[in-house]
């Protein structure tokens, strides 16, 4: 008995020790020296996925094949030999993409994610006496999960908390305490506030002392970490994103492959979707598929001085702090400057805040600084602006108008069959999505960065609203053959283009259109948004369409069927009639004050009431941001 306990304990100790070892070498926010890998070249060309990802995928495939079989079996699909697809020659890859939009996006995304998670109550088809109300089990069958900005807070906090579940977060209440905003973390308790600001100040000061340039994103990432990594003694100051590579939950393939998206922006440039360089962080690498960069570097060694990818024999670790990476995906600061003027805070305070923020912007401190530049003096990408700069600068992943992280999942090298795009953007004046992110992603394929990726046809934003494409889930690219006209140079096989399942934020049981800048949520509101998110992704708990899981199944197996030249079942044909965009347009000016669910119309009045209450929070944001900034100056 004792012996067995001893073994258990020593295993546990080893396990914890192994976790600690893989975190920052300084055991703090400061990067520090580590041994270089045997191969001195840290950079590779982006013509395929990495060997590490390839071999990890094999392990994940062996799990998702069984889980997909289970999911499809329970989806009650008729006339389908489920295992021919789930366990066929080619493993089916499912991708999830969560949009940006601050805490609104994080919380709505959390609800949508929970609808796919069998760990959510009443959502596990294996449980005898519960009647399943969502798409439980789909997450188990998923290969990739991507997040951008607010969506990266969701993905990052789930993944970096040992792939916890939304249900657990809500039940245990250990992380995501949004009752205190990161700008007023101490809740007016002077001692607590001091400790908080001092802690952040010490963390970033350690990085500066280690010789690394700081930007506001360091402060931002450390502040956010106080909400996401609350259970850790140091609030994640020493937790690197790459440490995931050693966690059993990841090495045993018991979670999807995480991807976080930012935009790379050369100094003094503006970006739009047509010319943006998208930068992805994944469990193994950081870099870009786009021709402007077209390279990846090993994320573990960020901060290392390289020339054309080669180290001089001394390497740095600990730069890839998890919170810093989530901060790099969400550098929302630019927007704040313009909000200060619209609030009613005292004039004196306004002046101070405005001057601090303008100062920051002048120095381009609204970026996340990756210096030294991991792609310095490389030639694979066409952007000399990026390759010849000693720093690599990243901004909010949504800054180019593409607010859903879709391109990483549309890379032919990733071989994804279906992508679920959860859009919690604030496109309309009332903070609802109108498909504009998809329009930008569609347009991007024709620009210099398109690189022969194919993105399915989508309509204009008026059609999105007028045709109810935001009111309920809509499938795009239902027929791969329809995409042939988009295949320039025949370089990309149309069957390699995922089918896109678009699911937009809608109000079912709660008005979830809160302002992007709202930084404080009480638990009731937080949980109401999460519940509404579940309802959005589950067709109102399957009440609006009991066949929804089967229709999702039809989308999942579609590309395999097309490859094999198979007819759809009668059920799948009907599903596609219900959910596929039929190619028709209605470009007349959309009434963006109305928003539909297929439960009916919600009145303008009701919507406005809610939106206004959401906007009040903007004031808090500016106020506390100013105080935070001032405190940091003060403590230094
Ligand atoms: C499938 O059908 C069975 C039996 O009718 C039912 O109990 C189950 O809830 C259905 N599953 C879904 C996901 O609709
Ligand atoms: C699987 O591959 C084998 C050999 O390559 C082939 O004979 C078989 O038809 C394939 N099965 C399916 C379902 O594609
Ligand atoms: C299922 O039923 C059993 C016995 O009635 C009960 O003990 C258990 O709590 C139920 N589980 C759920 C999830 O309701
Ligand atoms: C991580 O999650 C797995 C699976 O849920 C669990 O077995 C393991 O104990 C967890 N590890 C830690 C350190 O909490
Ligand atoms: C991207 O395009 C926009 C609009 O055409 C232009 O203003 C901007 O300078 C371009 N940026 C780069 C880096 O080419
Ligand atoms: C390698 O480069 C780093 C950073 O510039 C420098 O500190 C270090 O001394 C160099 N090491 C060698 C062996 O040249
Ligand atoms: C704020 O308002 C003042 C006075 O109206 C103006 O000079 C300033 O440029 C505005 N600041 C911003 C960031 O718009
Ligand atoms: C693409 O392939 C089709 C059929 O193989 C051919 O007819 C067409 O000319 C090709 N297009 C280009 C741009 O090469
Ligand atoms: C839908 O299911 C979720 C998760 O079980 C639950 O929290 C929510 O109350 C349900 N909504 C309705 C309208 O029943
Ligand atoms: C697909 O192609 C067919 C035939 O060219 C066309 O009628 C239809 O509108 C297209 N559908 C979409 C969604 O583009
Ligand atoms: C959109 O949905 C609303 C509410 O269900 C309905 O009144 C309207 O006719 C629908 N519009 C279209 C084009 O289907
Ligand atoms: C499929 C495709 O066209 N890939 C191109 C992407 O960009 C790189 C760099 O410009 C090219 O080498 C690839 O051929």
From TrEMBL:
<dbReference type="GO" id="GO:0005783">
    <property type="term" value="C:endoplasmic reticulum"/>
</dbReference>
<dbReference type="GO" id="GO:0046475">
    <property type="term" value="P:glycerophospholipid catabolic process"/>
</dbReference>
<dbReference type="GO" id="GO:0005886">
    <property type="term" value="C:plasma membrane"/>
</dbReference>
<dbReference type="InterPro" id="IPR002642">
    <property type="entry name" value="LysoPLipase_cat_dom"/>
</dbReference>
<keyword id="KW-0325">Glycoprotein</keyword>
<protein>
    <recommendedName>
        <fullName>Lysophospholipase</fullName>
        <ecNumber>3.1.1.5</ecNumber>
    </recommendedName>
</protein>
<dbReference type="GO" id="GO:0005576">
    <property type="term" value="C:extracellular region"/>
</dbReference>
<dbReference type="GO" id="GO:0004623">
    <property type="term" value="F:phospholipase A2 activity"/>
</dbReference>
<dbReference type="GO" id="GO:0005829">
    <property type="term" value="C:cytosol"/>
</dbReference>
<comment type="function">
    <text>Catalyzes the release of fatty acids from lysophospholipids. Phospholipase B may well contribute to pathogenicity by abetting the fungus in damaging and traversing host cell membranes, processes which likely increase the rapidity of disseminated infection.</text>
</comment>
<dbReference type="Pfam" id="PF01735">
    <property type="entry name" value="PLA2_B"/>
</dbReference>
<keyword id="KW-0732">Signal</keyword>
<keyword id="KW-0442">Lipid degradation</keyword>
<feature type="domain" description="PLA2c">
    <location>
        <begin position="35"/>
        <end position="586"/>
    </location>
</feature>
<keyword id="KW-0378">Hydrolase</keyword>
<keyword id="KW-0443">Lipid metabolism</keyword>
<dbReference type="InterPro" id="IPR016035">
    <property type="entry name" value="Acyl_Trfase/lysoPLipase"/>
</dbReference>
<comment type="similarity">
    <text>Belongs to the lysophospholipase family.</text>
</comment>
<dbReference type="GO" id="GO:0004622">
    <property type="term" value="F:phosphatidylcholine lysophospholipase activity"/>
</dbReference>
<feature type="signal peptide">
    <location>
        <begin position="1"/>
        <end position="22"/>
    </location>
</feature>
């Amino acid at each position: 008995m004792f012996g067995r306990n001893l073994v258990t304990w020593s295993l546990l100790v080893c396990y914890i020790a192994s976790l600690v070892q893989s975190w920052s070498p300084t055991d703090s926010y400061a990067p520090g020296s580590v041994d270089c890998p045997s191969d001195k070249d840290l950079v590779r060309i982006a013509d395929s996925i990495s060997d590490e990802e390839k071999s990890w995928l094999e392990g994940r495939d062996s799990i998702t094949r069984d889980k997909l079989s289970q999911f499809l079996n329970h989806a009650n699909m008729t006339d389908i030999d489920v295992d021919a697809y789930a366990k066929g020659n080619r493993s089916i890859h499912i991708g999830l993409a969560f949009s940006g939009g601050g805490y609104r996006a994080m919380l709505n995304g959390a609800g949508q994610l929970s609808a796919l998670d069998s760990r959510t109550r009443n959502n596990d088809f294996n449980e005898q006496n519960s009647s399943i109300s969502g798409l439980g089990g789909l997450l188990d069958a998923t290969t990739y999960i991507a997040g951008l900005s607010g969506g990266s807070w969701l993905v990052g906090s789930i993944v970096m908390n040992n792939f916890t579940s939304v249900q657990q977060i809500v039940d245990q209440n250990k992380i995501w305490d949004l009752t205190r905003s990161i700008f007023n973390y101490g809740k007016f308790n002077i001692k607590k506030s001091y400790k908080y600001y001092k802690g952040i100040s010490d963390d970033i000061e350690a990085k500066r002392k280690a010789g690394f340039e700081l930007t506001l994103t360091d402060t931002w990432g450390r502040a956010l970490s106080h909400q996401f990594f609350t259970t850790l003694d140091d609030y994640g100051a020493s937790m690197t994103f790459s440490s995931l590579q050693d966690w059993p939950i990841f090495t045993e393939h018991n979670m999807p492959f995480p991807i976080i998206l930012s935009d790379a922006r050369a100094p003094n440039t503006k970006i739009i979707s047509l010319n943006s360089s998208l930068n992805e962080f994944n469990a193994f690498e950081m870099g870009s598929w786009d021709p402007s960069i077209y390279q990846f570097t090993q994320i573990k060694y960020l901060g290392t001085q390289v020339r054309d990818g080669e180290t001089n024999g001394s390497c740095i670790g600990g730069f890839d702090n998890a919170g810093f990476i989530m901060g790099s995906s969400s550098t929302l600061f630019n927007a704040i400057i313009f909000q200060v003027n619209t609030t009613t805070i005292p004039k004196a305070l306004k002046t101070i805040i405005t001057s601090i923020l303008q100062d920051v912007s002048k120095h381009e401190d609204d970026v996340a600084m990756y210096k030294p530049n991991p792609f310095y003096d490389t030639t694979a990408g066409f952007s000399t602006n990026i390759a010849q700069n000693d720093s690599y600068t990243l901004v909010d992943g949504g800054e180019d108008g593409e607010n859903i992280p879709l391109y990483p999942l549309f890379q032919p090298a990733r071989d994804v069959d279906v992508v679920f795009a959860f859009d919690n953007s604030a496109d309309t004046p009332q903070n609802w999505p109108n498909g504009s992110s998809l329009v930008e992603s569609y347009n991007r394929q024709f620009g210099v960065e398109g690189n022969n990726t194919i993105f399915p046809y989508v309509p204009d934003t008026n059609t999105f609203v007028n045709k109810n494409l935001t009111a309920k889930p809509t499938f795009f690219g239902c027929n791969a053959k329809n995409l042939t006209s988009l295949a320039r140079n025949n370089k990309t096989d149309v069957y390699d283009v995922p089918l896109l399942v678009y699911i937009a934020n809608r109000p079912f049981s709660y008005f979830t259109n809160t302002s992007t800048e709202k930084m404080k949520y009480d638990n009731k509101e937080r949980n109401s948004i999460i519940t509404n998110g579940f309802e959005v992704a589950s067709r109102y708990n399957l009440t609006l369409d009991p066949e929804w899981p089967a229709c999702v199944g039809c989308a999942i197996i579609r590309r395999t069927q097309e490859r094999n030249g198979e007819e759809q079942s009668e059920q799948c044909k009907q599903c596609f009639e219900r959910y596929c965009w039929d190619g028709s347009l209605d470009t007349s000016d959309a009434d963006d004050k109305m928003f539909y669910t297929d439960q009916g119309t919600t009145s303008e009045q009701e919507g406005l009431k809610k939106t206004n209450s959401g906007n009040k929070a903007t004031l808090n944001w500016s106020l506390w941001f100013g105080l935070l900034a001032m405190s940091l100056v003060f403590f230094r």
